[in-house]
Write a structure and sequence with these properties.
This protein is an all-alpha fold and 315 residues long. It is built from 14 helices and no strands. The longest helix is centred in the middle third of the chain and has 42 residues.
Length: 315
């Protein structure tokens, strides 16, 4: 296939919003590599997914040694693994060779990599120190990773469900769908970015405020300013997500030699941002219920006229 220029590859493959770690430290390397590997048909997205898993297992083997030099090597290998993990989706979007099975494989291998690396890293420290706290820390890392992704996917479903119900109710009452509900790009991008699976778009976003976020915006007036600044740099507002948590545990902690306290701090920040997302969702559901109730308060005759036509017209 003819390989487009690098700027076009970025537009086609990079997500509209992504984790700051990915935007700043991974995409500048992964995107040029994708453009290079796209020249060879034998390199497939699923093949890169397998390579990411193999590199993750190699990182785990390094972590299990427990010594300082092996921790540093393991951190470097883990970062390479994550670069591969970002490349598979980019290659699939660029070449059109993605598949549903490939998406499943990528998701499952990510969870397997975190599980094995958490056990290896904390197990190596337990063998070195005999401190049982590392055993509990391994369980905490696996639990928080699982919690983050399950919660993100469920929030994504709830947000899409609310938007769809509002569209259906508005169309039933008014006969048309308001523009702010007809354009779903903002809510899908917002929710999907929280699920860490946003898709690239052809144009830069110009997000409009949606009805189910009004309460949050009123309570936190500076949110839009911060949000717009981050969006301009492709960074999502969920600054400490599953990706940043993983990088703190498996890269930063081994590099600085402070496994326990770095992991504890990263876990606390992850939970803080999760609670913020849940609070935002709570306010959104209240806005949703209020808007749905406003449609219910409209005269029944209005709906009847839409469905059956007025008596004057029937004559």
């Amino acid at each position: 296939m003819e390989i487009p220029p690098l700027a076009e590859v970025r537009r086609l493959t990079e997500k509209r919003r992504d984790a700051w770690w990915t935007v700043l430290l991974v995409d500048p390397v992964a995107t040029p590599l994708v453009r290079l590997t796209a020249r060879w048909r034998w390199i497939t997205p699923n093949g890169i997914t397998w390579a990411a898993l193999v590199m993750g297992l190699a990182a785990a083997a390094c972590f299990a040694q427990g010594d300082r030099q092996w921790l540093v090597i393991g951190a470097i290998v883990y970062h390479i693994s994550f670069i591969f993990d970002c490349m598979d989706g980019k290659l699939a979007r660029l070449t059109g060779r993605g598949s549903e099975f490939g998406a499943w494989l990528d998701y499952v291998f990510d969870r397997v990599r975190v599980l094995i690396c958490a056990v290896a890293l904390m197990g190596g420290q337990y063998n070195r120190t005999d401190d049982v706290a590392y055993v509990w820390l391994a369980l905490a890392v696996v639990f928080l990773d699982m919690l983050r992704y399950i919660d993100a996917l469920q929030i994504f479903k709830v947000r899409q469900g609310m938007r769809q119900k509002l569209k259906q109710r508005a169309e039933a009452v008014n006969g048309t769908v308001p523009a702010h509900l007809a354009d779903t790009s903002d809510v899908v991008d917002e929710a999907a970015s929280e699920a860490e699976d946003a898709t690239p778009q052809d144009a830069a976003p110009a997000p409009s405020l949606i009805v189910t976020q009004q309460s949050f915006i009123r309570r936190f007036t500076k949110y839009n300013r911060i949000r717009d600044f981050l969006i301009a740099h492709r960074i999502r507002t969920h600054l400490i997500s599953g990706i940043e948590f993983q990088m703190a545990v498996f890269i930063i902690a081994p590099l600085i030699g402070a496994i326990m306290w770095t992991t504890v701090a990263a876990g606390a920040l992850l939970l803080l941002f999760e609670f913020a997302i849940i609070y935002k969702l709570l306010l959104s559901t209240k806005d949703f219920e209020r808007v749905m109730a406003s449609y219910d308060d409209k005269p029944v005759a209005q709906e009847a006229e839409v469905q059956q036509g007025s008596p004057a017209m029937s004559r």
